[in-house]
Specification:
Agglutinin, subunit A, transferase, 8% helix, five-stranded mixed β-sheet, mainly beta, binds 2-acetamido-2-deoxy-beta-D-glucopyranose, 35 strands, 3 helices, five-stranded antiparallel β-sheet, SLSG/EP1, Bulb-type_lectin_dom
Length: 436
């Protein structure tokens, strides 16, 4: 019995030596401290920033903040040469800001750690003693920790926030989605997501995050996109790509931004007249899905918006179909918020137009009607056949129901945890009922 034990121990020992000897050379380790002057350029969200040395043009790692004393380690895209807006395309510590004098440390054990000044660990890649020998910021916008064979032990591409870079993928086993940023000031998770599911890519809104009543399940996310990016064959992954179009004298006539499922086929996102490698696909704070392409040979504004999901000009769906178009509530026509539904009828719209306070429940709840409107809930989500009376009763019993939609011609009912933009239509059998 002794021999095999020794034998195993011997191999275990070899294994230990092999992994512990793969270390980051001292001259590749670093400790960046969040201190000093702020940079001079204009960046997204009006953020202040301090650039760090990790760089792969046009990407650079930086500390940035939109609120004093609340910093994020983010990836900035853009070059100083073009003097265009710098965009924040990735955050390490999303929703978990750090303070002044926080430290980003890449140590000999191969771990990349973000610590507060007092030593509290806020974020890390979790790659200690996993054979990491170096770190690089690839010029595609990917931060990689690699082993001695050059294999990526960790990459920021596997941890997207609200933005996909060209060549970045969403996969069935994760990461499965982009999640919008909460607001310009707050980079924690917002309520919108762009998710890889069994039928491809869909947009969802999770309406009442943070206001769920005790014991109640949050309402399921609601679909607000059509079938533009859906397929019949379940993909394992989808990659954002830039493909040259047909060539004339070896020069491509155009480039095509695509979402490419591994199961074949592709979705055209945009056609661009120049090399669109430096493009991003972004799920914006508003819930709109857009592509921006960066082309820095141009003198002034290097960013071009090359795709917009919700837009009257060239969108997949009209501007009014964006749930947040009119804030919390409003009647929308041709991308304009034209009216605010109230108990007394329609009045002029402004940002003070809001639905009733949440959790108005009980048998005494009353509703007012908005006749001839549509919205994403009845358009893209399955309704239940029932009588108008039952539909109202259902909503009256639900804390997170602020109103409901009822289509008389098919007797279908949808409870609405969110109202947002209502599109006016000529069909008077499509009615919204809003709690008084
Ligand atoms: C880092 O140190 C190694 C030897 O450990 C040396 O070969 C390499 O050139 C050094 N790199 C830099 C950038 O100084
Ligand atoms: C996508 O899936 C295919 C097939 O399963 C696989 O070969 C490929 O490596 C995957 N790509 C990514 C980026 O995950
Ligand atoms: C497009 O630009 C990228 C990055 O600059 C480059 O690697 C690629 O070769 C270019 N593609 C073509 C077809 O010129
Ligand atoms: C907003 O609209 C309402 C209803 O039309 C009106 O009473 C209110 O004065 C408006 N508020 C502002 C700030 O314009
Ligand atoms: C309203 O739309 C439904 C289909 O959604 C249709 O069956 C019905 O005839 C329409 N009514 C009018 C008045 O256009």
């Amino acid at each position: 019995m002794a021999a095999p034990t020794t034998f195993h121990f011997f191999f275990f020992f070899i294994f230990l030596v092999a992994t512990t000897t793969a270390k980051v050379p001292a001259n590749r380790t670093f400790k960046y401290v969040n201190e000093g002057e702020f940079g001079p350029y204009i960046t997204e969200y009006d953020a202040s920033y301090r650039a760090m040395p990790l760089f792969g043009s046009p990407f650079q790692l930086a500390w940035y903040n939109t609120t004093p004393g609340k910093f994020y380690v983010g990836l900035r895209m853009g070059t100083t040469r073009s003097e265009s807006l710098f965009r924040w395309v990735w955050d390490a510590n999303r929703g978990k800001p750090v303070g002044e004098k926080a430290m980003l440390i890449f140590s000999e054990d191969g771990n990349l750690i973000l610590k507060e000044k007092n030593g509290k660990v806020v974020w890390s890649t979790g790659t200690a003693n996993k054979g990491v020998v170096g770190i690089k910021l690839l010029p595609v916008g990917n931060i990689v920790l690699y082993d001695k064979k050059g294999v990526f032990v960790w990459q920021s591409f596997d941890h997207p926030t609200d933005t996909l870079m060209v060549r970045q993928s969403l996969t069935k086993n994760g990461p499965t989605k982009l999640v919008s940023r909460a607001s310009p000031k707050d980079n924690s998770d917002g309520i919108y997501s762009f998710v890889l599911g069994s039928n491809g890519m869909n947009l969802f809104v999770s309406p009442v995050q943070g206001m769920v009543t005790v014991g109640a399940l949050p309402p399921p996310p609601l679909l607000y996109s059509d079938d533009r990016f859906t397929v019949t064959q379940t993909p394992s992954n989808i990659t954002f790509t830039n493909e040259p179009g047909f060539s004339f004298n070896d020069v491509p006539e155009f480039y095509e931004l695509q979402l490419t499922p591994d199961t074949g086929g592709n979705f055209i996102v945009a056609q661009v007249k120049y090399n669109a490698t430096l493009s991003i696909l972004r799920l914006e704070i508003s819930g709109n899905l857009v592509a921006y392409t960066y082309y820095d040979p141009v003198a002034t504004d290097a960013w071009e918006r090359t795709f917009t999901y919700f837009s009257d000009d060239d969108g997949v769906l009209p501007g009014c179909a964006l749930p947040s178009k009119c804030g919390d509530l409003g009647v929308c026509q041709e991308s304009m918020c034209v009216a605010c539904p109230t108990e007394k009828g329609l009045v002029g719209w402004n940002a003070t137009c809001v639905p009733p306070a949440p959790c108005t429940i009980g048998s005494g709840v009353e509703y007012y009607k908005v006749v001839g409107v549509e919205q994403f809930i009845p358009k893209f989500n399955v309704g239940v056949r029932m009588s108008l009376k039952k539909c109202a009763k259902k909503c009256s019993g639900e804390c997170d129901c602020v109103g409901f939609f009822y289509w008389t011609e098919s007797s279908r009912c949808w409870s609405a945890p969110v109202l947002g933009s209502l599109t006016s239509v000529s069909n008077s059998s499509h009615v919204a009922y809003i709690k008084k």
